[in-house]
Description:
CATH topology: Rossmann fold
Radius of gyration: 15 Å
Structural class: alpha/beta
Order of helices and strands: EHHEHHEHHEHEH
Shape: globular
Number of domains: 1
Mean pLDDT: 94
Distance between the termini: 21 Å
Low-confidence stretches: none
CATH class: Alpha Beta
Number of strands: 5
Amino acid sequence: MSFYYFDTSALVKRYVEETGSRWVTSVCDSDPGNIIFTATISHVEAAAAVGIKHRTGGLSPEDYQEVLDNLAYDFSHHYVLVTVDEALIGLAVQLTTRHRLRGYDAVQLAAALTVNYLTRESASMDLPFVFVSSDGDLLRFARSEGLDTQNPLDAA
């Protein structure tokens, strides 16, 4: 059992077949003991990403609707959602002063750092914590902030 924080670039691989999808599926589906964290904004980011795939011909209307339904179900039932609040935004802003981050990437990294801190503070939750992303720059910044990382593209 491990804790994972998935940013959207990695999470979307659970819903559409891409390089790294098999690894993402194995972490999310094959081992029910894993706990998957993600920010609440990941839902809209993922919906936007699959919407682009649909509009560019990568998903049929039926497959697109199925992905949207699966996203909604998983965000309601399977993921531990990190709320984007003022404290998280403050940390994200601080991260932009140290790293060349895009806005939502800063929020994703801030959410992962917050979860990592909270899970480390709980003596009963001393489990591995891994930040998962398909964005090489974001992974590099996460490592510089002390997080263990995994790129699904490397596990493919």
